[in-house]
Amino acid sequence: MTNQPITTSVFDLFKVGPGPSSSHTIGPMKAAFDFRQRLSSLEPSIQQQADAVHVLLYGSLSATGKGHGTDRAIVAGLLGWQPETTDPDALLDLLRDSSVSYPIPVGEKTLELEPQHIHFERKRYDSPYANTMVLQLRQGEQVLYEEEYYSVGGGFIIRKGEPDVASDNQDVPFPYSSMAELKEQLKTNNLTLDELMIRNEMAITNRSRADINQRIDQILEFMHKAVRRGLRHKGTLPGSIKLTRKAPILYQKAKGMSQSSDSFLIFLNAYCLAASEENAAGGIVVTAPTSGASGVIPGLTYLAKHHFHHDKLTLRGGMLAAAAIGFLVKHNASISGAEMGCMGEVGTASAMGAAFLTRCAQPNGSISAIEAAAEIAIEHHLGMTCDPIGGYVQIPCIERNAMGAVKSYNAFLLATSGAASVQKISLDAVVKVMKATGRDMSTKYKETSEAGLALSATEC
């Protein structure tokens, strides 16, 4: 475990933006926007020499970037768009016509970005992260200025030469970098998990308690809007697979069998599929912790609100518990499919969902039950591959979100059955195993579409 305290904001973990992939869409858009800003502050002599902007994509950004819309996201960022305010329909229109170019301001001049300026590089690139992009300002073949960015999962980016902002030395009142340290802080200071998370968040963001609570409510509303849209929208998803949306069908089936014990699970599946299908269509979703896993938490929170009738206070507490688990995985392993496979995305989301359910059901419960629920959920996702067919976040990603949510619910049941205190494996231990598993897993099974289910594309 790293010794640096966790200083990630809840609102960096739960980010609003367009699907289908936080690593491939939100991260690259943010990197391109950052590059655009940096171009504006270059020396005028450099700006005047420039005649083009080029983008080089490596790793799974290259292998599956077309299916994930990475090229469109980069164009959007260079145009000055931000993830939370992007119109998803306008985003889908970008690069649809190969003859259209896009104006990029560089000082007093404007350069036209054309589709051929975005390069999906197949060669290996010496980089510390799997998802790497290099943005260049050129005069002919001469590179006048460049920046290298890494998309490290969940829409988080790192610029080469800068430290990971989530690992800086920012002071928080109750620092922790592991579950063991988190539990010690709670015990020593006689705090609830809710209170610790809120007070650390206040220090990280300088937001007031009321502002943080209001923002959590807004994040939940963004999630639930995605669920509601997905329950309404019918037809096929974008891309060559021509996958039919299933959420509306399942939802109607669940409503028609309300007296059956199975309806509960069908409703949950419908909610998770609804948000995931919206993500696959490029709609506005919330990274939870990634876009590829953005159906699990929305489905569970929608269920908690509309079926369990939990109030706002309870839902907020559940979200803070989910964030605590997401922080620990991101800090000590990774939430990136390119680094960890799908255990880093849906596996983490499932653990967060299990923590959410446990906290909601036991407002005054122990941290041990939350830890046990999260550990069980991760344990049963270890080694899960990321192998999207055609590079689209559709098969197996959409159904995998529903399966992850069901595992969340079962992990919650197991953890709250009275046996949490005798759980043998700690969360810290399973996260350590998760990191080692991701390191040992073949790259072919980590978001490259070079193995696994991805090879069955010809059958679709």
Task: Please give a handful of descriptors for the protein shown.
60s Ribosomal Protein L30, Chain: A, alpha+beta, 19 helices, 460 residues, two-stranded antiparallel ribbon, globular, 2 domains, 5-stranded mixed beta sheet
In short:
The chain has 460 residues and is of the alpha+beta class. 50% of the residues lie in helices and 10% in strands.
Notes on the protein architecture:
With 460 residues, the chain is an alpha+beta fold. The chain has 2 domains: 21-165, 60s Ribosomal Protein L30, Chain: A (2-Layer Sandwich), CATH 3.30.1330; 167-459, no CATH class. It has 19 helices and 9 strands. Strands 5-2-6-7-8 form a 5-stranded mixed beta sheet. A two-stranded antiparallel sheet has the order 1-9. Strands 3-4 form a two-stranded antiparallel ribbon. Helix 13 (296-306) packs parallel to helix 16 and helix 17 (367-379) packs parallel to helix 19 (427-440). Residues 165-169 have low confidence and may be disordered.
Strand % is 5-15%
Low-confidence stretches: 165-169
Q: Could you say which structural class the secondary elements and strand pairing correspond to? A: alpha+beta
Per DSSP, the total helix count is 19
End-to-end Cα distance, whole Å, is 42 Å
Number of strands: 9
Number of domains: 2
Helix content: 40-55%
Average pLDDT confidence is: 93
Oligomer: single chain
Overall 3D geometry?
globular
Strand order of the largest sheet: 5-2-6-7-8
Q: Which radius of gyration do the C-alpha atoms yield?
A: 22 Å
Helix-strand string: HEHHEHHHHEEEEEEHHHHHEHHHHHHH
The biggest sheet amounts to: 5 strands, mixed
